[in-house]
Amino acid sequence: MTVLRRFTPSDLFKYNQVNLDRLTETYHTNFYFHYFVNWPNLCHISESPSGDVTGYIVGKVEGTGKRHKGHVTAVTVSPEYRRIGQASTLMKVLETISDKVYNGYFVDLYVRASNTVAFDMYSKMDYHLFRRVLNYYSGEEDGLDLRKALSRDVNKESIVPLGRDVTDEDDFGD
User: Fold this and answer.
1) Which of 25, 73, 127, 139 could link 122 by a cystine bridge, Cβ 3.0 to 4.6 Å?
2) Burial grade of 14 (CB within 10 A; 0-12, 13-18, 19 or more)
3) What's the rounded Cα separation, in Å, for the pair 149 and 127?
4) Is the pLDDT of residue 27 over 80?
């Protein structure tokens, strides 16, 4: 059984095994510290009984008005702990905080277009394709911008598809 708790800076010395997956983006230490300082309640890990990090989520809140949102910057689970609901549990924590604490309109995230397993998981969690961002991942692979409306977005305006592909340079204010 795993335990969920807030991600702490000292966990950066224990999460390497989780980041070895080729689909996981790994960032520099200062990047993670920025999140810990600004949005500590949106950074969580799952931990095994032996203390090993089995997965984590790092997120933030940004935007104003109807673009006020929770954003999943990174979510990953160690291969041996996949398909048992850890990613969904981590996502629900971020969604609940984005909704109840920050009163956001929606949560968004990006997933590699080739990552059909993740796309299917997010679809089951009520995420919808908002737009495709061309060459989003290192200029080599398209990213899919997925969104889930929160309780504040009663009319679900935030998940209406854009209807066209964009580049990362396009500015949508979100």
Assistant:
1) 127
2) middle
3) 8
4) no
Distance between the two ends of the chain, CA-based, in angstroms? Answer: 37
Least confident of 50-54, 93-97, 99-103, 111-115: 50-54
Distance CA 110, CA 48 (A): 27
This prediction's pTM: 0.91
CB distance 146 to 128 below 8 Å:
yes
CA separation, residue 75 to residues 56, 58, 121 (Å) = 6, 6, 12
- Residue 170 in tokens: 């396009």
Q: What angle is formed at CA 105 by the lines to CA 100 and CA 107, rounded to 5 degrees?
A: 85
